[in-house]
Specification:
The chain is an alpha+beta fold and about 180 residues long. It has one domain. The chain has 5 helices and 4 strands; from the N terminus they run ααββααββα. Strands 1-2-3-4 form a 4-stranded antiparallel beta sheet. The longest helix has about 30 residues. The radius of gyration is 20 Å and the shape is elongated. The two termini are about 25 Å apart.
Length: about 180
């Protein structure tokens, strides 16, 4: 029964490849995003290694450059689940590429969000595969409240791209909501 439902759905699915310009733009956004992420991780860790520190203030009382490695996902969830997180990343990346290359994206803001999702996933996936399951984080923002420093979890450029992509998807859905369907009975 499930296979019949999937078969019927696929009969009505008419994918159309995106325009060549959209494919080129997607590749450029992903390449620039991944390059920026991997370069910034390498440069930050090399700089901290050169000065022999695990952290150094950039803006006193607000922002540090740190050398942190996270074996989990957002906010250190799924700690130590390297193969699970690699698998989830591959599935998410596959779905994003399929959505893009089947021409299902109609709004520019969604296109940018999907491109940023792909770049962010690839940047952190690279670390998971080639850094023993550890994602390199180096941006540490904090504030002092009542004499105590309150830190946001350290993050990287890939994490930033993923957050911006989520925000763009929310904005896209708010401003480009599909019209409600009505029954014609």
């Amino acid at each position: 029964m499930l296979l019949r439902a999937i078969s019927n759905a696929l009969k009505h699915f008419k994918p159309a490849l995106p325009a060549k310009g959209a494919i080129f733009a997607f590749i450029i956004i992903v390449a620039v995003g991944v390059s920026a992420d991997l370069w910034s991780k390498q440069a930050s860790f090399a700089y901290l290694d050169n000065i022999g520190l695990f952290q150094t203030p950039v803006i006193e009382g607000f922002f540090n450059l740190v050398k942190a490695e996270n074996t989990g996902a957002a906010w250190s969830s799924f700690q130590g689940q390297k193969f699970f997180l690699i698998g989830v990343s591959f599935v998410a990346l596959t779905l994003i590429v399929l959505v893009f290359f089947t021409g299902q994206i109609v709004h520019r803001i969604t296109f940018i969000a999907v491109s940023l999702f792909a770049a962010g996933i690839i940047g952190n996936l690279y670390d998971r595969i080639f850094n023993d399951g550890k994602v390199r984080d180096f941006l540490d923002f904090y504030i002092s409240l009542n004499g105590r420093e309150q830190h946001w979890p350290a993050f990287n450029i890939a994490d930033s791209m993923l957050c911006v992509a989520v925000a763009l998807m929310v904005i896209s859905n708010l401003f480009h909501a599909s019209p409600k369907k009505t029954d014609d009975k």
